[in-house]
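Annex B. Sample input.
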Amino acid sequence: MKIAVDAMGGDQGLLATVKGSIDAVNELGVSIILIGDEEKIKNELSRNEYSGDKIEIINAEESITNDEEPAMAIRRKKQSSMVIGLNLVKDKEADAFVSSGSTGALLTGGLLIVKRIKGVDRAALAIPYPTKKGISLLLDAGANTDCKAKYLQQFAVMGSIYAEKILSISNPKVSLVNIGTEEGKGNELSKEAYGLLKNANINFAGNIEARDIPEGNADVLVCDGFVGNIILKLTEGLAMSIFSMLKEEFMSSFTSKIGALLLKPGLRKFKKRLDYTEYGGAPLLGTKGVVIKAHGSSDAKAIKNAIKQAKVFVENKVIEKIEAEINSLGGNYDTEERF
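Annex B, continued. Sample output.
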């Protein structure tokens, strides 16, 4: 299996992508195509003492930054590492593409270059969300701020397949994020989506309120991208604030420092449960090829796990299963030109 990796994306750049790719080759048995500044990649491979033949380099003369307008950057920077990687997937020269670069550009490029599966109205960004019981899948997490009920139905189907095949959750429980648990709650979008989800080929468990999400009462959390992104960003900010406040309290006195020392093993274990590097990245569900968005601050471990995620995605034929289920909903038309 050959997986393309954007070597120029992310806060840590080559330092993380090269090391993570080497670890993936050694541990996962995949072949890697590193896309970026060829000379710099070679120097980093040498620094890590890699001399094998499982890593190929494709030179990229450009890179896309986070402050660029996504659609314009994708259209204008044809020689960027991201565009080259997405084209490799489109042309079947790579089985998957992993990038920790600009989220907006990757989503836009995934739709413009790799394109959607026939019948999928909108592709969704699916985020592994840590909960008390393990992991839930939150989608859409920001790709589509305005949605129709049918989009949410498709998100639910795609998320259910991914949760079962990639997260190894048997018969995943799917819930619609809402302001109440009763069927008649919410706005018109929520009410219409509820009716569609009841009739979809999924294990639909009804509505879920935001306060119940961290409990892990649902395996797949369905919402529009506006709500999903707020949930994601609020959770990240709350977690950082809590850890910051705990640190301040633990360092406030000699007694609290002793207490912190005693609690350190438990706190480390708790922090690991919330660590994004454990889960790899977020898949763009609904595209014809495998596209994985790794966290912008991904280290080598996160890159390796994102590559692992891509490998399992391909091996389990998730795209083929999504296509079959979407067709069963009556989505046998081609929607590519509508983007």
